[in-house]
Amino acid sequence: MSVDHELYQSPLSWRYGSPEMQALWSEAEKRRLMRRVWIALAEAQQAAGLVRADQLARLRASADAIDIDRASEIEATTRHDVMAEILCWAEQVGDAGGVIHLGATSADITDNVDALRIQASLRLVRTALLRLIEVLAGRVAETADTVSLGWTHLQPAAPTTIGYRLAGALQDFVTDLAVLDETLGRTAGKGFKGAVGTAASYASLLEGSPLDPDAMEAAAMARLGLPAFPVTTQVYPRKLDWLVGNALAGIAGSAATLAMSIRLMQSPPFGEWSEGFAEGQVGSSAMPWKRNPINAENVNSLARYVAALPAVAWQNETLCLLERTLDDSANRRLTLPGAFLATDEILRRCTRLAERFSIEQGAVAATLARFGPFAATERVLLAAAGAGGDRQVLHERIRQHSMAAWQALEQGRSNDLAERLAADAEILHWLPAETIRDLVGAPERHVGTAPRRAREMAARARAAILASGETG
Length: 472
Prior knowledge:
By secondary structure, this protein is mainly alpha-helical. Helix content is 64%, strand content 4%. The strands form 2 sheets. A two-stranded antiparallel sheet has the order 1-2. The mean pLDDT is 92.
């Protein structure tokens, strides 16, 4: 890709996002889609005798012959981008230029173009999301039985499995898929309703013809493969942009949660996961040993941006006063492509993370050995109380031993909690020493139903992929 770096370029135009998503939101594709919308309108109007076959043929033949430079020259005079595009095309097609935009207002073209791009973009995001779900489901199944220490409040808690932790992220992405599908099902264009949405211009134009405005709109929108909102003002309901923004922000949120988990578990105090480090990759210009989680950090950074955009869409909806105002136009040129391109990049990077992150088994075992005994104290408490001991007395004895063992850890010694408990006369009165050691020293036997539920979540995710009709 050739980029003029002497002028400001959005990172979304060359650094982030797939080539497919970048092409979809390009200026050239927008203008090609504008012509596609005008041709659909002309095709529908031909049935009313408003457009001749030879005129329509010339429009179709020149559909891809956009000339952005010439249109920009015209716009310098007209100060109106849609009118400039009409005049530019009219120069190319002779008298066929006279039937372009019959009865239409600008938003009949631009809002349908936006809806077409939203529709196509949601489908690209959906494919990328399915791929992530597929990869993550595989990692969940692979690690469903891999025991590790759980953490609450960023403090040592009870054992869990890595697969079960990942299953939570997978569940969120499956939820995002359902929301995305619902949003895709609600995506529609303005249709062809003219100024303020009444279709009065089309009614006048079609008077005496075999076509009425509703039939003309239905025929044109069928050619575009896009439903139309039944009620619009000058523009389609800006509620759609807000719904789309929320769906993308939801995906970004799920990805950000997973990325933050990877960052935490890669940090040396945990050291149990790693996002991977490529041959020749540099972590720091000053510190040669650094192995920074740059992909996970990138996901978190872009996710904050995507999460902020629905607020702009909300204001565009609530401040689209009466039949319309134009104060949403400039920011929609930024927020719509920005939300999709950033989400696209988030999904690409998150899939890479899911594919490549590794588990440092030695660190996992070391953490369990260091903190796992504390998590076992509830089992000792319940077993001793169940055998007839006083729960409150036992709780205090176990608490004292736990604090002493924790102090030993802080001084660099190993965790001796099992031996402390196994030597306590009060606890020994209710449980044999071997039982105490067994309860404290076997965390892998105390993860409950986590492995089964992780595998079930992976199966549900794969079923969602099959139900989608895609393989990801």
